[in-house]
C-alpha cells in the first residue's frame, strides 16, 4: 500500500470535466467518501466542446438525469452523426452516422453485401442503408429502439449541447447531493517530502484544502498532474498536424440539423454544431500552414449566421500524459491529454476515465496495481481513438495544398497502417474489446474517404445476383419508409421541451 485509506477526494477544476467527475463520484461514492471541488471563476473554463457521442446517454442515465430537463437546461439538440465535407475530395461528403447500417448476417457484416452489389453494377451508396444518415439529412428524429415490425436496430443518437450550461446543470446535481464547492485560485500545492504525494491546495484567499486523492481537472495547465507530480506529456503532433483552434458562436440556425458538420479547408477543418439558441463554430488548423489571421478569415467567410462574440484562439498540444494517474493525482479532461474534436471524443474520455477511476477506486489506500491498470486502459483507449482520427487525415485524396500533401506523406502508427491495409485487401476490420469505435464507424470513414476494398467476405457470395438485388432494394425501401414516418427534429425537440419533467 502506498498511501493511507482514501476518505477525502478533492477535484481541482469546475469545467465540464470537473463537474462531470463530481456528479458521478458523489452519486457512486458519496456515502463513503467526502468530496470537495475547487474552482476559480477568475480563471474560467475553456468554454468550447458541444458535440458528443452515444455513450453520453449512459452517463446521464447513471446520474439519474431527466432527458427533457437536460435538453432544456443545456439548450441541447439531437446528434445522429458527423457529416464530413471536402474530406475525401473537394465537393464530396459522407457521414459517420451512429448505429447500424443495413442488416448484419452471422459472421459477415453488411458492407460485404454492399461491396458485392457495387461490383455487379449497383449504384446505391452505403448510406442509403443507414437509418441514422437518412433521418439526419432529412432532418427527422424520434426515439426508435427498433425499425417497426422488424428485429433491425432503430436510431442511435447523442447530443449537441452547451458545455458550459451542462457543467452548471451538473453542478446543481452534485452540490444537491453533497459535493462541497470551494471558490478560489490555487496558488500553491503542498506535497509530502517523503512520498511526493499531494497533501494540500493553498488558495490565493488564504484557504487550504486537504485531501487523500486529488482529481486534476484544471484544464490544459495540468496544475497537479504536470506541475505538482510531473507526469510526462507524450506529443502526437507527428500524426495529428493541427495545433490551434479558433472558435465563436453564431446566431440561431433557421432549422436545427440533427448532425454535426465537419468541413475540411486548406489547412484544417471547420465545425458547425447546431444548438437550440445558436450555432457553435470553430476552425481547427495547423499553425505551420496557416496564421491565426488566415484561419480567422476562413472561419468568417464560412459562418452560417451573424457572429455573436469575438473569436477566441485556443492553442493545444495533441497527445496524452504517459501516466494519467501519478502518485495520488488522477487527471481527467484536458489535464490528461487532448485529441482534437474531429470525432467529439473529449467529453466521452472524461466519462470513461471517471468511470474507470470509480472501478479502480483505492479505498484502502493507493496500490500500484490499480494505478498501472488504470494507466494501461487509459493509454489503450486514447491510442485507439487517436488512430481513428489520424485515419481521416491520412486516407484523404486531396492534394491541393501543402497541408493535405503533408498528410498524405506522413508516417502513421503501425496499428493504423495494419488496419488500413487489412481493409484495403480484404474489406475486414476487427474491433478490439476496448475500442470505442465500432467496425461500422471504421467502414464508414474508410469507404467515405475513398479506401476501396479489393475483396468482400465469401458469405456475401451465398446469395445469387437476383437475391442480392432484392435484399438491397428491400432494405433501402424499409429505411426510406421508416424515415418518412418520423417527425421533424424541431417537432421532436419542441414536444420534448413542452413535456413536464418527472
Ligand atoms: C477547440 C476545442 C473544441 C472542443 N470540442 C469538443 C467537442 O465538440 N466535443 C467534446 O466532447 N469535447 C470537445 N472539446 C473538449 C472539451 O471542451 C473539454 O474536454 C471539456 O470542456 C473539459 O474541459 P476541462 O474541464 O478539462 O477544462 P476547462 O474547461 O479548462 O476547466 C478547467 C477548470 O480548472 C480551473 N482551474 C484551473 N487552474 C486553476 C487554479 N489555479 N485554481 C483553481 N481552479 C483552477 C478553472 O477555473 C476551470 O474551472 C473541445 C476542446 C477544444 C479545445
Which helices and strands occur, and which strands form pairs?
Layout: E1 8-12, H1 16-29, E2 34-39, H2 55-62, H3 67-74, E3 77-79, E4 81-85, E5 93-97, H4 110-119, H5 131-137, E6 158-160, H6 163-176, E7 180-183, E8 186-191, E9 198-203, E10 208-210, E11 213-216, H7 223-228, E12 233-235, E13 244-250, E14 260-265, E15 268-274, E16 279-285, H8 292-301, E17 312-315, E18 319-321, E19 325-326, E20 329-331, E21 337-338, H9 346-359, H10 368-394, H11 402-409, H12 414-426, H13 439-448, H14 465-485, H15 489-498
Helix pairs in contact: 1-6, 1-9, 9-10
Flavin-adenine dinucleotide (FAD) binds next to helix 1, strand 2, strand 13 and helix 9.
Please describe what this structure looks like.
The chain is α+β, with helices and mostly antiparallel strands and 502 residues long. The chain folds into 3 domains: 8-77 and 161-233 and 318-384, FAD/NAD(P)-binding domain, CATH 3.50.50.60; 100-157 and 387-485, no CATH class; 246-315, no CATH class. Helix content is 36%, strand content 19%. It has helices spanning 16-29, 55-62, 67-74, 110-119, 131-137, 163-176, 223-228, 292-301, 346-359, 368-394, 402-409, 414-426, 439-448, 465-485, 489-498, and strands spanning 8-12, 34-39, 77-79, 81-85, 93-97, 158-160, 180-183, 186-191, 198-203, 208-210, 213-216, 233-235, 244-250, 260-265, 268-274, 279-285, 312-315, 319-321, 325-326, 329-331, 337-338. The strands form 5 sheets. It has a 7-stranded mixed sheet. A hairpin with a 7-residue loop joins strand 4 (81-85) and strand 5. Helix 1 (16-29) runs parallel beside helix 6 and helix 1 packs parallel to helix 9 (346-359). It is globular and about 75 Å long. It starts with 7 loop residues before the first strand and ends with a helix. The model has no long low-confidence stretch (mean pLDDT 96). The protein binds flavin-adenine dinucleotide. Flavin-adenine dinucleotide binds next to helix 1, strand 2, strand 13 and helix 9.
Amino acid at each position: 500500500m502506498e498511501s493511507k485509506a482514501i476518505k477525502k477526494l478533492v477535484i481541482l477544476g469546475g469545467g465540464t470535466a470537473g463537474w462531470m467527475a463530481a456528479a458521478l463520484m458523489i452519486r457512486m461514492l458519496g456515502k463513503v467518501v467526502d468530496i470537495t471541488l475547487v474552482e476559480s471563476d477568475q480563471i474560467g473554463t475553456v468554454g468550447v466542446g458541444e458535440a458528443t457521442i452515444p455513450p453520453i446517454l449512459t452517463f446521464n442515465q447513471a446520474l439519474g438525469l431527466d432527458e427533457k430537463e437536460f435538453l432544456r437546461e443545456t439548450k441541447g439538440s439531437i446528434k445522429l452523426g458527423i457529416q464530413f465535407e471536402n474530406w475525401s475530395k473537394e465537393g464530396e461528403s459522407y457521414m459517420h452516422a451512429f448505429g447500424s447500417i443495413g442488416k448484419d448476417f452471422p459472421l459477415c457484416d453488411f458492407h460485404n453485401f454492399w461491396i458485392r452489389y457495387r461490383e455487379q453494377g449497383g449504384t446505391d451508396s452505403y448510406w442509403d442503408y443507414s437509418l441514422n444518415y437518412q433521418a439526419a439529412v432529412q432532418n427527422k428524429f424520434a426515439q426508435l429502439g427498433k425499425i417497426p415490425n422488424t428485429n433491425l436496430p432503430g436510431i442511435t443518437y447523442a447530443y449537441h449541447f452547451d458545455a458550459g450550461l451542462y457543467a452548471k446543470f451538473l453542478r446543481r446535481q452534485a452540490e444537491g447531493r453533497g459535493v462541497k464547492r470551494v471558490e478560489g485560485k490555487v496558488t500553491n500545492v503542498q506535497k509530502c517530502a517523503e512520498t511526493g504525494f499531494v497533501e494540500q491546495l493553498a488558495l490565493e484567499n488564504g484557504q487550504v484544502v486537504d485531501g487523500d486523492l486529488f482529481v486534476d481537472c484544471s484544464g490544459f495547465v495540468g496544475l497537479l498532474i504536470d506541475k505538482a507530480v510531473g507526469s510526462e506529456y507524450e506529443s502526437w503532433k507527428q500524426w495529428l498536424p493541427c495545433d490551434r483552434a479558433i472558435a465563436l458562436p453564431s446566431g440561431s440556425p433557421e432549422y436545427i440539423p440533427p448532425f454535426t458538420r465537419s468541413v475540411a479547408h486548406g489547412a484544417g477543418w471547420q465545425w458547425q454544431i447546431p444548438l437550440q439558441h445558436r450555432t457553435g463554430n470553430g476552425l481547427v488548423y495547423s499553425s505551420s500552414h496557416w496564421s491565426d489571421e488566415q484561419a480567422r478569415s476562413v472561419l468568417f467567410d464560412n459562418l452560417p449566421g451573424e457572429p455573436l462574440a469575438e473569436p477566441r484562439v485556443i492553442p493545444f498540444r495533441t497527445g496524452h500524459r504517459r501516466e494519467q494517474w501519478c502518485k495520488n493525482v488522477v487527471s481527467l479532461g484536458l489535464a490528461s491529454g487532448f485529441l482534437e474534436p474531429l470525432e467529439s471524443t473529449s467529453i466521452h474520455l472524461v466519462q470513461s476515465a471517471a468511470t474507470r477511476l470509480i472501478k479502480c477506486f483505492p479505498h484502502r489506500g493507493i496500490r500500484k496495481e490499480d494505478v498501472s491498470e488504470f494507466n494501461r486502459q487509459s493509454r489503450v483507449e486514447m491510442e485507439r481513438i487517436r488512430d481513428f482520427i489520424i485515419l481521416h487525415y491520412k486516407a484523404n485524396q486531396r492534394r491541393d495544398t501543402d497541408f493535405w500533401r503533408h498528410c498524405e506523406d506522413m508516417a502513421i502508427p503501425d496499428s493504423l497502417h495494419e488496419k488500413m491495409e487489412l481493409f484495403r485487401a480484404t474489406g475486414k476490420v476487427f474491433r478490439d474489446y476496448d475500442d470505442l469505435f465500432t467496425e461500422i464507424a471504421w467502414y464508414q470513414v474508410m469507404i467515405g474517404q475513398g479506401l476501396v476494398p479489393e475483396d468482400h467476405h465469401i458469405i456475401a457470395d451465398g446469395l445469387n445476383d437476383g437475391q442480392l438485388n432484392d435484399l438491397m432494394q428491400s432494405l433501402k425501401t424499409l429505411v426510406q419508409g421508416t424515415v418518412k414516418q418520423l417527425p421533424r427534429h424541431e417537432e421532436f425537440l419542441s414536444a420534448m421541451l413542452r413535456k413536464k419533467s418527472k
